[in-house]
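WARN no homologs supplied; continuing
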Amino acid sequence: MKASHRHELKDNELGHVLADAQSSFAQHKGLILGILALLVIGGGGFGGYRAWQSNLENKAGALLAAGVVIEESRIQAPEPPAGTTLDANSPGGQVPGTYPTLKAKLEAQLPRFMEAADSYPSTVAGQSARLHAADTLAQLGRTDEAVKQFDLLAASKNTLMVNAARLGKASAQLRAGQYDAAIAVLKAESELATSTLPAEAMLFELARAYTLAGKTEDARKTLQQIVDKHGTTPFGAEAKTELAKLAS
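OK structure emitted
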């Protein structure tokens, strides 16, 4: 999504979630953090149960945070060996808190997220960690494993979490070139009356999937649907732009 869309939706957390998701799957940490901002961590009861639930959330949150710290770390090549540069204070080697490649960073954060997800699957932090883990797997090219993690969130009682997982699953499939599978997910989500995601946003993602799959006529029809029903929204303006591109 273009920067102008992000500006339009900056005061809308859900819109921000979709903006990040539409730019690239690699930016799904924005989606996950946006979802976290929307979720309310509740005890669901009183007294001992609330304290117990809070304790679980705290433990899951600590594990999730450990993974996020790695996820936010910089990628930086190792320094030359000590004594080989003009900087006498340089210890050489990998700077602490950095990783030599994206792959190395992804492989380091994955077990942290999976530990939180598998140890505390019913907590908000644990489920958010599963979204992070699925994102990480997708970036590593392990699409089938990523899809399994997204599917595990289908049983979540939080509708936002379920919708985020569906969007993440479709994005992972698009990234892997599994266009028909992604289209099926996005089409179902766009037709779901109870979805918490804006209909025009899901339709735009569906049109993008059709375009990537080479189904130009389906993409055109979907974009026209956005213009006809949601023409005054940012997605309506973007749909008009995309329709012009298809017509050229």
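The radius of gyration is 21 Å.
OK
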